Amino acid sequence: EDVSYSADTRTFRGTVTWPTGFDGATRWEYDMVFAEDFESIVGGKMTAYASDGRARDSSSFVDPRSLRVHLSENTLLYVRRPSALTPAPLVLRDP
Question: What is the 3-state secondary structure (H, E, C) of 19-39?
């Protein structure tokens, strides 16, 4: 819900609402900046909110290609899975 995308900045924003809660949070808000080739997320964050609306914690997306990446428990890395690891679609043929 509350989804938007800016092609100019390659930025996606969206919200995931958990009706029964998930790990103490009822809402996650995402702000993701994609690389020019869309092979990875190079910036942004995810913030989790409690049912009372208070921010519980936040994690930052970092560029996985950066040599200066300092990983911590609040660091998110995303790269697109190579096509060699993606199963081929099932093709049905007439007998």
Answer: EEEECCEEEEEEEEEECCCCC
**What's the pTM value of the predicted model, to 2 decimals?**
0.75
User: Which amino acid is residue 38, in one-letter code?
Assistant: F
Distances in Å between the Cα of 84 and the Cα atoms of 2, 80, 92 are 34, 11, 21
Q: Tens digits of per-residue pLDDT, 61-83?
A: 988 888 676 677 788 888 887 76
Tell me the β-bridge partners of 31. 13, 45
Question: Which is nearest to 57 in space by CA: 19, 23, 14, 21?
Answer: 23
Sign of the C-alpha dihedral computed for residues 28, 21, 17 and 77 taken in this order: positive
Phi and psi, residue 84, nearest 5°: -65, -25
AA letter at 55: A
Classify burial at 84, counting beta carbons within 10 Å of its beta carbon; exposed 0-12, middle 13-18, buried 19 or more: exposed
